[in-house]
Automatic annotation (TrEMBL):
GO MF annotation list: ATP binding; ATP hydrolysis activity
Species per Swiss-Prot/TrEMBL record: Sinomonas humi
Protein name: ABC transporter domain-containing protein
Stored PANTHER family: ABC TRANSPORTER ATP-BINDING PROTEIN, ABC TRANSPORTER ATP-BINDING PROTEIN NATA
SMART domains for this protein: AAA
Length: 259
């Protein structure tokens, strides 16, 4: 199947979200195809987390809509939740339980009764076969991160949402995580992630949206964005040598530090 024929998994249409007087997301639209790794990029305060919280159904937008696998989130919130994989923070897990118990608990929450053999296979997939009798709190940071990724995908979601998945990981754990993400894409999974590393986005994302002040600044494959904006004087002013996605990002969103 070539890229043009891939079905759309997630569509964000004219999304507007306000906090009181402040407009955090201001008419944002983008779409993600099946099997695509998509990066939602933007400086601090650009509106990424707010957009994710609407996609997850945690916040109602002031206007606009989100459609996942053809289903509008506001119309069928439960059906949509089953299509989404969301990586939980370590603090969300019951840290006294063994990881096998936690995995079974989450499978149950999605209405799956996975036999012990399958749960063990899933844990082995993320290299945790030696740890199945350990309580969550005894895992290392990298192991906890792998476990939470496994739990997020236990119900084979249509799209996996990852908010800064590599923040705080050492280079080895980060590489491993990308290998797993690539593996998931090869099996047809779609991923929406946020990252502040433009190098990472350029290396792993099929397409990215650069947003600022809640508005779309650029959308497309990293190499196409570089080609499209390399002669922009704002990009030229910040580039050193070959233009990178980071140069495009800083050129389009400005050099001022955000809080
Ligand atoms: N609960 C809230 N109440 C009021 N304002 C908020 C709230 N959450 C976010 N904001 C504001 O909305 C804007 C967008 O914030 P958001 O957290 O979505 O940005 P972000 O791109 O995820 O930033 P970061 O990279 O720092 O996580 C910011 O100006 C922020 O201060």
């Amino acid at each position: 199947m070539n890229e043009a024929e891939r079905p759309t998994v997630l569509e964000v249409q004219d999304l507007v979200v306000r906090y009181g007087q402040q407009t955090a997301v201001d008419g944002l639209s983008f779409s993600i195809s099946r099997g695509e790794i998509f990066g939602l990029l933007g400086p601090n305060g650009a509106g990424k987390t707010t957009t994710l919280s609407v996609i997850e159904g945690l916040r109602k937008p002031d206007s606009g809509r989100v459609v996942i696998d053809g289903v509008e989130t506001l119309h069928a919130p439960l059906a949509v939740k089953a299509k989404l994989g969301v990586q939980l923070q370590a603090s969300s897990f019951q840290s006294e339980l063994t990881i096998e118990q936690i995995a079974r608990l989450y499978a149950g929450l999605y209405g799956l009764s996975l036999p012990q053999r399958q749960i063990r296979e899933r844990l082995a997939d993320v290299g945790l076969q030696q740890e199945i009798t350990k309580p969550f709190k005894k895992l290392s940071g990298g192991q906890q991160q792998r476990f939470s990724l496994m739990v997020a995908t236990i119900h084979n979601p249509s799209i996996l949402l990852l908010d800064e998945p590599t923040a705080g990981l050492d280079p080895q754990s980060r590489r491993q995580l990308w290998d797993r993400i690539e593996g998931s894409r090869k099996r047809g999974g779609s991923i929406l992630l946020t990252t502040h590393s433009m190098e990472e986005a350029q290396a792993v994302c099929d397409s990215v949206a650069i947003i600022d002040h809640g508005r779309l600044q650029a959308f497309g494959a990293p190499k196409d964005l570089v080609a499209m904006h390399r002669d922009d004087p704002r990009v030229q002013a910040v580039a050193h040598g070959d233009v990178t996605l980071e140069d495009v990002f800083i050129g389009l969103t400005g050099s001022a530090i955000r809080d």
